[in-house]
Amino acid sequence: MAEQRPAERPPLLVGRGVTRYFGGVAAVQDVDFEVRAGEVLGLIGPNGAGKTTLMNLISGLLPLSRGDLIFNGRSIKGLSPWDIARLGIARTFQIVKPFTGMTLRENVAMGAMFARDGKGVSAREALEVAGEVLEMVGLGHRMNAYTDELNIAMRKRLELARALALNPRLLLLDEVMAGLNLREVERLMELVRSINARGVTIIVIEHVMKAIMGISDRIVVLHYGKKIAEGTPQQVAQDERVITAYLGRRFGQGKGA
Amino acid sequence: MSASQSSSFARRAAWAFVALVLAVAAVLPPFYLSGYWVRVITSLLMYGALASAINIMVGFAGYPALGNIAFFGVGAYTVAVLMVKYNVDFFVALLAAGVLAGLYAALLGRAVLRLRGAYFGIATIGINHATSEIVTNLDSLTGGGRGTIVPFYPGGIQEERMFFYFLMLGLMLLAVGTTWLISRSRLGYGLRALKADQEGASVMGVNTTRFKVIAWTVSAGLTGLVGGAYAYWLSFLEPPYVFDITMGVKTYIMAILGGAGTVVGPVLGAFTLELLSELIWGRFLEAHMLVLGIVVVLVVLFIPQGFMSLFAQLAATLKRRRTGEVRADG
Questions:
Q1: B204 and A93: CB-CB below 8 Å?
Q2: Are A166 and B195 an interchain contact pair (Cβ–Cβ within 8 Å)?
Q3: CATH number, domain B36-329, options 1.10.3470, 1.20.140, 3.40.30, 1.10.1740
Q4: Are strands A74-75 and A66-71 parallel, antiparallel or unpaired?
Q5: What is d(CA A205, CA A187) in angstroms, rounded to the nearest whole number?
Q6: Pairing relation of β-strands B148-149 and B236-237?
Q7: What is this model's ipTM?
Q8: A101 contact residues in B (CB cutoff 8 A)
Q9: Where do the DSSP E strands lie in B61-218?
Q10: Across the interface, which of B184, B192, B200 has its CB nearest the CB of A93?
Q11: Which residue does chain A place closest to B260, by CA atoms?
Q12: Helix axes B157-184, B265-283, angle to 10 degrees
């Protein structure tokens, strides 16, 4: 409440009791969260905590078992992935999904062709927009290359470019920095910050702690599908439950003593 | 700058010349060739159309529609029944054949297109078989297993030859033109994207369900048109003639051979394979299938991307050599 900027803005996405079962297992259970317009929300938690499942629920790839998701004042529960994309929610995948057999430019043009403002954007116009976006993420020189000619860092950038071409209001980044070296991570952090500075709200999943601490305004911590903590990066880093979840009970309790 | 402009003008002129030569080459045969060769080329054109039609599913959407020939049969029997039972004019019947085959695919698509890969392929083979059985059992309407005689083309033998030649040529151009339009449209991009990754395409705003259904509807509609034309050409129909899975697989191979997902590749593949098949058929009646099988194996081993990929490689090599020369000059 003391923070000024993002806290005063209205929430762009609200999750209420978000739940998803796989058979009898709750991958995500009764998670309440808010993403405020213009902020970067970090999503962390040990492996299998339900972070990617939560992202799949937001982007419509999985149906909710229970609960509701409200984007920009409207429930997106039960909408198809393409409907959600056109409302302005874009995402990247942890395991990159380039469109093989298409050039980088064509890959990115897909976003512009079917995007939020994409009604009536022809393939040709979309290809032009794609060129600009590729320049922005630093792939302008490889525009006509095919996706199988790219290294992993470039593929991650391509994922990002494709999502950006949708002209999203909310961008979901699922481990865009995994597998990159330190210099690449720093460059990508800078890029994410500049995207956020343009007014795009971002939810980011990341295991690279330095990165997530550096770019998030707030962080939500998931553990076994439940939200166990929430707050600024500093608050979360000192939270006993978080340390226990990551390092085990001995370290968590030892902290206070 | 001006150099590149003049070279683009030269390229355009070259294309115009090629187009002119092709147009002349397409129109001349029925006037000069013997009846046998006109018939052979008419069948090449028919396969060109069928291979283009199946390419929309196989090459663009990435769905192995092995049993797409079912729509050929639906089209053929639509024309037969309308002409025989209801005295409908051929062209009206032909239009109905395309529409009906397309609708049939649209209806089936919602359910069957949930299957992916080989499962979808197998389902389409099942559809072909089931449709064939239905047609056989609608005895009073279709003539069933005894077959049905479609009215003959009213006119002389030379005139008839011309008619079917230009009919098949027109249908092939329609199929290629449709493919060209798709390749440049949002539909084409959406299909190629969902071929690579359906989840990826869907979060990019592609309505994957709708796109797949549209693609199959178009593919089936074109196939149905060709089937309708074939019924009139053949003038005697039996279910096994037109619900022939071997024929379906052949069009599939043609599309792959020429270059799945390209615009003119399937036509090249169809011409090559059908001409080859015609030559072999004449000489070795028994070994015919064996030779075709060997051709398929060789293609899969050596040019899995089809003929068009060879041209693309050649063009890339030439370009590299040319820019290399420019650099050496500068």
A1: no
A2: no
A3: 1.10.3470
A4: antiparallel
A5: 17
A6: antiparallel
A7: 0.86
A8: 192, 195-196, 261
A9: 148-149
A10: B200
A11: A101
A12: 140
CATH of the domain at A35: 3.40.50.300
Distance from CA of A83 to the nearest CA of B (A): 7
A101 to B192: CB separation less than 8 angstroms, yes or no: yes
Residues of B in contact with A93 (CB under 8 A): 199-200
Please write the tens of the pLDDT for every residue from A203-220: 999 888 888 988 999 999
Q: What is the pLDDT of residues B192-221, one digit of tens each?
A: 999 999 999 999 999 999 999 999 999 999
Q: Which of A84, A103, A114, A170 to mutate to test the interface with B (most CBs of B within 10 A)?
A: A114
Range of the domain at A227: 5-256
B206–A102 CB contact, under 8 Å: no
**Interior angle at CA A30, CA A28 and CA A36, nearest 5:** 95
A99-125 pLDDT, tens digit each: 998 999 999 999 888 876 556 678 888
Q: What's the predicted TM-score (pTM) here? A: 0.88
CB of B293 within 8 Å of any CB in chain A? no
Backbone angles phi, psi at A116, to 5 degrees: -50, -50
Q: Which residue, B209, B206, B211, is CA-closest to B110?
A: B209
- Structural domains of chain A, count: 1
> What is chain B's percent helix, strand, coil content, to nearest 5?
85, 0, 15
Length of chain B: 330
Q: Two tokens at B14?
A: 């070259």
Whether the CB-CB separation of B183 and B263 falls below 8 Å is answered with yes
